């Protein structure tokens, strides 16, 4: 280790920045976050710095660097953009035993500015000794993804409850376990101070009762998590954070192996995929499993393809959990329609072509009750989920309710997954094309002339059967 990482308390302490340009402005911003007393020495100031100076938030001495500028400084930053001047500043600082940061010149630095992940009061600093700043930045980005934004709020709340925790949980081990659990579920915790306080109070009471009676409070919780359309990189940060913390994961058929690989290695994996025809029985079974695991005190990740609130029976699962008094958090996911639109390059709305989009499922008896006339209307997009086996019926309904045969349509199979395929056509020929292509689930049907915007889509060809639908509409 060539440098010792430290945290400096710069509040109210004089820091001198030599240089008044863009780079200097960036450094000043950082120093202001640490409430330093900043003096900028430069003949001219970047607009942002000028603004700060005019409000008295920094001081400015107009002119070139002079060694006497360092009088009273705790720290110096050389950011002139002129390597020679920066070196001179560095030398003058060294003579006065003042730490100096010379931008982009680690040899002239006695102090390096790390890349920072700020979840104040939790702050992480990353450095590479100045040799690989891009690596430091990339590392920082990964840390950003790993730690929930709310950590700062949590740390502040923990500080408020520290004394109380000490008195109701005098046993150090127990107290450590309590806080450990608190932070490990951080991504699912409320973020308002009041809600957090209520949460901590309840949890502390339960932990204190457990300590008293020797009977552990075994109330786990459930995280209803959207896994997105398949590509694991489309998981939300929160989904990823919670998948790294769960004890057990109950996952559906549509959750890809790649997503499952992001689950904490020692979490138990339970497949609860439903096969067609036996929906009702298995949904009840899923409810029982969720309750069973949660009642053992576990943190249950209920992982569903796409978004848990879109054609996913999330509402039913929420109701069951609420009735049983099990805390539950919903984490949204990228629904299949959005994943498919993105990877097929089909905008779901487009000025002058489509001004509304409907997500619809035409499964089973409910299909008859759909407002087919509305779905067949022009200037909109309809995305049909679970439509592969129903494709001929869907197209027939749309045609029967006035959609022209030339209206564009596309099928996106295994959207965002390695085997993704795009089949385009019109209402007249999409059934035939899908049979030819042997389309398999999971696949989405997108109906609307937005499909024609999928320029560059490999399988897309202008279709002769189009009959000037746009003019007709
Ligand atoms: N909750 C899920 C939808 C579940 S219904 C979501 O928000 O996406 C299941 C249907 O979603 C499938 O029949 C299929 O129509 C669609 N689907 C899910 N993943 C898909 C994918 N990767 N590619 C295409 N369609 C997909």
Number of strands: 17
Poorly predicted tracts of residues: 457-473
Provide a count of the helices: 17
The ligands bound in this entry are: S-adenosyl-L-homocysteine
Mean pLDDT rating: 91
Main sheet: strand order: 3-2-1-4-5
Sheet with the most strands? 5 strands, parallel
Q: Using the coordinates above, name the CATH class of the largest domain.
A: Alpha Beta
Shape: flat
Rg calculated over all Cα atoms: 30 Å
Structural class: alpha/beta
Helix content: 25-40%
- CATH-derived topology of the largest domain: Methyltransferase, Cobalt-precorrin-4 Transmethylase, Domain 2
The figure for the number of domains is: 4
Report a brief summary of the structure:
The protein has helices at 22-33, 47-54, 83-95, 133-146, 151-160, 162-168, 172-184, 193-213, 237-243, 257-260, 279-295, 314-323, 336-344, 372-376, 391-400, 430-437, 469-472; strands at 14-18, 37-41, 59-61, 75-78, 99-102, 115-119, 122-126, 221-226, 248-251, 268-271, 299-304, 328-331, 357-361, 381-385, 408-413, 421-426, 443-447. The chain is of the alpha/beta class and 473 residues long.
Walk me through this protein's architecture:
By secondary structure, the chain is of the alpha/beta class. The chain folds into four domains: 14-113, NAD(P)-binding Rossmann-like Domain (Rossmann fold, 3-Layer(aba) Sandwich), CATH 3.40.50; 151-213; 221-334, Tetrapyrrole methylase, N-terminal domain (Cobalt-precorrin-4 Transmethylase, domain 1); 337-467, Methyltransferase, Cobalt-precorrin-4 Transmethylase, Domain 2 (2-Layer Sandwich). The protein has 17 helices and 17 strands. Strands 3-2-1-4-5 form a five-stranded parallel beta sheet, with helices on both faces. It starts with 13 loop residues before the first strand and ends with a helix. Mean pLDDT is 91; it is low at 457-473. S-adenosyl-L-homocysteine binds next to α13 and β17.
């Amino acid at each position: 280790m060539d440098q010792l990482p430290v945290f400096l308390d710069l509040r109210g302490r004089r820091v001198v920045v030599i240089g008044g340009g863009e780079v200097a402005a960036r450094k000043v911003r950082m120093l202001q976050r640490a409430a330093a007393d900043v003096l900028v020495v430069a003949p001219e100031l970047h607009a942002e710095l000028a603004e700060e100076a005019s409000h008295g938030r920094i001081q400015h001495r107009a002119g070139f660097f002079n060694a006497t500028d360092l009088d009273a400084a705790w720290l110096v930053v050389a950011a002139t953009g002129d390597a020679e001047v920066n070196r001179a500043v560095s030398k003058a600082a060294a003579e006065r035993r003042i730490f100096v940061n010379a931008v982009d010149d680690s040899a002239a630095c006695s102090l390096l500015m790390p890349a920072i992940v700020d979840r104040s009061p939790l702050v992480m600093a990353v450095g590479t000794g100045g040799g690989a700043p891009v690596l430091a930045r990339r590392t920082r980005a990964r840390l950003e993804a790993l730690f929930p934004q709310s950590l700062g709020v949590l740390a502040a709340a923990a500080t408020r409850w520290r004394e109380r925790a000490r008195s109701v949980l005098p046993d150090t081990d127990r107290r450590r376990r309590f806080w450990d659990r608190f932070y490990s579920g951080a991504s699912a915790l409320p973020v308002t101070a009041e809600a957090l306080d209520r949460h901590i109070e309840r949890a502390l009471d339960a932990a204190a009762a457990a300590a008293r009676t020797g009977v552990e409070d075994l109330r786990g919780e459930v995280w209803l998590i959207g896994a997105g359309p398949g590509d694991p990189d489309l998981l939300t940060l929160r989904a990823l954070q919670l998948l790294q913390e769960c004890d057990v994961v109950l996952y559906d058929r549509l959750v890809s192996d790649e997503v499952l690989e992001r689950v904490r290695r020692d979490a138990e994996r339970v497949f609860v995929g439903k096969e067609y025809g036996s929906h009702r029985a298995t949904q009840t079974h899923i409810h029982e499993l969720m309750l069973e695991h949660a009642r053992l005190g576990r943190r249950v990740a209920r992982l569903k393809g796409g978004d848990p609130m879109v054609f996913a029976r999330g509402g039913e699962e929420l109701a069951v959990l609420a009735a049983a008094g099990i805390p539950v958090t919903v984490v949204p996911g990228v629904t299949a329609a959005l994943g498919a639109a993105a990877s097929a390059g089909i905008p779901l709305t487009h000025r002058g072509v489509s001004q509304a989009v409907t997500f619809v499922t035409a499964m089973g008896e409910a299909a008859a009750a759909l407002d087919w006339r509305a779905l067949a209307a022009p200037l909109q997009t309809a995305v049909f989920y679970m439509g592969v086996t129903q494709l001929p019926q869907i197209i027939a309904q749309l045609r029967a309710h006035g959609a022209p045969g030339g209206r564009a349509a596309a099928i996106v199979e295994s959207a965002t997954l390695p085997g993704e395929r795009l089949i385009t056509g019109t209402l007249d020929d999409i059934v035939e094309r899908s049979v030819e292509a042997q389309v398999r689930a999971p696949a989405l049907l997108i109906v609307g002339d937005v499909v024609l915007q999928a320029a560059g889509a490999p399988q897309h060809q202008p279709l002769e059967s189009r009959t000037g639908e746009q003019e007709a509409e």
